[in-house]
C-alpha cells in the first residue's frame, strides 16, 4: 500500500508539536531541492516559533504528519532561517509558476503540490495540482483543474509573466505587521517584488513601519514613486519622515510633492528635527480634544481601530485649532481617569498638568528618562508658544534606543540544545 500524499497547502499553518504534545511553532512553507533525475527532495520545513522567528526544521526531525499536526523529535535549531543556494520554497517559489505538460502544448499554473514519504524514509514531491487557462471570456469563469505527477511536467523557463501570488498572499493575510515584514524579507527578491505589488497600500505601509532601516531602503528601491507616495500617506508621520529622510534628496522631494498635501506637511515638519530628538521621534497624530469634549466623546475617539495602543492611553486637551500644531496646550486626560467619571463630564475638568511638556529639541535620552521616571507611555512636545506639536510614545523611544538589528535578535537567547548543521 502506497504512503498517503499530503498537499502542501494543508500543511501551511499547521501546528508543530514535540513528542509531549506541546506546540513549538507553526509550519509556514516546505523547502525542497531539485536533483538531476527524479522529483525534488523535501529537505525541511520553514517553521515560525514564538518570538516571530522563522527557523529551519530538518525533515529528518519530523516523526509524523497527521491532520492539522506535525510531530517532531522535539529538537529544533533556533537559528534564524536563511535560504541556501539550491533550496526552493514550495509556497513562495513553486506555487503560481506556469508549467507545461510533457509531450504536449498544454500549460497550467501550479496551485498546489503534494509530497509523499518513500519506503526509504525520504520525502519527495509527488503530484502537481494545476489550473489550466480559462477558455471563456466571462469574469466568473475559471480554467479546468487537473492533478498530474510531477514527472509529467516541466517548468517554462522563459516565462516572463508574473507568478500568481494568490496562495502566497492568502498565507500572509492573517499575519500581524511585524510578522508580515519578516516574511517579506525572507522571500526571494523577484518573488518579494511580486508580493509587494499585490499588497494593498495600507498593508504595505504597516510592514514598512516594522522593517529595519536597511531593509526599508532595499524594499522601497523596488517601488515606483507614485505607489510609494500613496504608501507613505498611510504610514504614521514619524515613520514616514524617518524613511523619507534616508532617501536621496531628489527622490525625497519628488515623493513629498506626490503625497497628499496634509500628510506631506506633517512629514516636512518632522524632517526639520534631528531623528534623535523629541521632535524627530514624535507623532503628529495624537488624539486631540477641546476642553468641552465629554468623557463619552473622548472614549469614542480612543476606541477607534486605527489608534495605536500607546496613543489611546490618553487624550490631549488644547485650545483651537485641534490639529498639530494646535492652539495652546492645556493638559492631558488618561483613559483610566475618564472611566471613573460619568459620560457627560467635560474633559476640561479632568485635565492633569503633572506631565511637563518637552521641547522638540530635547534629546531622546532625556525623553526616555522622563518616561521611565514618571511611568508614562507618552509625552507632549510643545513649541515656544506652548502649542502642541505632537506626542512621543514609549515604543518610538525604544525603537530609537535599541540596536539597529534588534528585530533580528528577537528570540535569539532561546536555545534548545540542538546542534543540527545545515
Automatic annotation (TrEMBL):
What the entry lists under SUPFAM superfamilies is as follows: CBS-domain pair, MgtE N-terminal domain-like
Any stretches that span the bilayer, and where are they? none
Q: Which UniProt keywords apply?
A: CBS domain
Q: Which InterPro entries match?
A: CBS_dom, CBS_dom_sf, Mg_transptr_MgtE_intracell_dom, MgtE_N_sf, MgtE_transporter, SH3_actinomycetes
Q: Which GO cellular component term is one of those annotated?
A: membrane
Q: Which SMART domains match?
A: CBS (SM00116), MgtE_N (SM00924)
**Which Gene3D superfamilies does the record associate with it?**
CBS-domain, MgtE N-terminal domain-like
Tell me, what is one Gene Ontology molecular-function annotation carried by this entry?
magnesium ion transmembrane transporter activity
Source domain of life: Bacteria
Q: Where is the CBS domain?
A: 282-350, 351-410
What PANTHER family does the database record attribute to this sequence?
Answer: MAGNESIUM TRANSPORTER MGTE (PTHR43773)
Q: What is this protein called?
A: Magnesium transporter
Species of the source: Pseudoclavibacter caeni
